[in-house]
């Protein structure tokens, strides 16, 4: 029981019961005062009407006989003689001042405080002399009104019980959706997502439920983007690792020697720096709660970036017997972009091309200035893509699901990552058939 009173439903029911009880008690006290006051006022009106009627009678001796049937509810009748003598059943309720006023020809309407009781009194003079008096104790008037007051108090008690029951039901109606919402919030706090939040209850509770559902959706979106970012970083880290492994194996096998060693060393240093930048991306994610690659646009020379990327993949091309070809115009290729992210896109496209290109077939990295921007192409001599493939090429995992087991495929992330980065760089990416027979991925970037 104590635990129940500690709940919202218990406390709400208790408050409603307390308020209803106080309201009923106050209403009962006020009703008693009003009923008694109304009964006294009605008695005064009745006695006044009767006294006015009796004062018009000419024969005082027949008054009691004429009005006895009208006074059976408790009023007392008294007669005042011309000599001031008071007779009748109500004689003891008539004071001397009333007698004097009546003999002076005045009508009297007042409430007299007697030694034992308060009396309502109406007196009227008679044309033949003397007067007639009607009086009734207030206690008797209130006693006559007691049945009505009792019925009112019973009605108030019934209303009190009804209010408490209705308050309990209202408390349950209010608390039930809050309890469901709290349970959903606990499930969210425990790491569960897509938690159903059933709406219900008053508008404020429905608003809380909707806010919790919106929070659930926001958490799912944020966590999904963070998972995608981590997958992207994991995928991208493999690219410099591949270059590092290729050159390390070339060094170990003695393929690289003499004057070539210094160039290989510079490539290894560059790829190690790229790995370091990816690690910094992960640290930035942890510190800033970012959920995507950071992009810093500034003027860069794309030709340096493309040559650096091409050099990093030479060991892989040699090992796989790929006829690699670099087609760049002479001079700088100035573009407003993020050098690290542009390198990331080119590496991803080259890795994709080298994966599907068979031994002896070409892979081409080309670039040219077109209009006010820069166009970068990665072409291969692999199996290529159909029109249906091209339509979904940049959707995450689409080609992976379509060709897994049929041709060499990656993790299904590379092309979607490249498309997202190109979009953030302000460019666009597309795919078409390459002159070499495979696929040609084209990246168009705005100029400075």
UniProtKB/TrEMBL annotation:
Pfam name, any one: HAMP
Keyword set, alphabetical order: ATP-binding, Cell membrane, Hydrolase, Kinase, Magnesium, Manganese, Membrane, Nucleotide-binding, Phosphoprotein, Protein phosphatase, Stress response, Transferase, Transmembrane, Transmembrane helix, Two-component regulatory system, Virulence
Chain ranges passing through the membrane: 152-174
Enzyme type, top EC level: transferase
Residues in HAMP domain copies: 172-224
Entries under InterPro entries matching the protein: 2C_sensor_his_kinase, HAMP_dom, HATPase_C_sf, HATPase_dom, His_kinase_dom, HisK_dim/P_dom, HisK_dim/P_sf, Sig_transdc_His_kin-like_C
Coiled-coil residue windows: none
Location within or outside the cell: Cell membrane
Highest taxon in the source lineage: Bacteria
EC id: 2.7.13.3
SMART domains linked to this entry: HATPase_c, HisKA
GO molecular function: kinase activity
Lipid bilayer topology: Multi-pass membrane protein
Keyword Chloroplast in record: no
Histidine kinase domain ranges (all copies): 232-448
Catalytic activity: ATP + protein L-histidine = ADP + protein N-phospho-L-histidine
The protein's required cofactors: Mg(2+); Mn(2+)
Major location category of this protein: membrane
PANTHER family attached to this UniProt entry: SENSOR PROTEIN CREC
Name the UniProt record assigns to this protein: Signal transduction histidine-protein kinase/phosphatase MprB
Organism: Arthrobacter methylotrophus
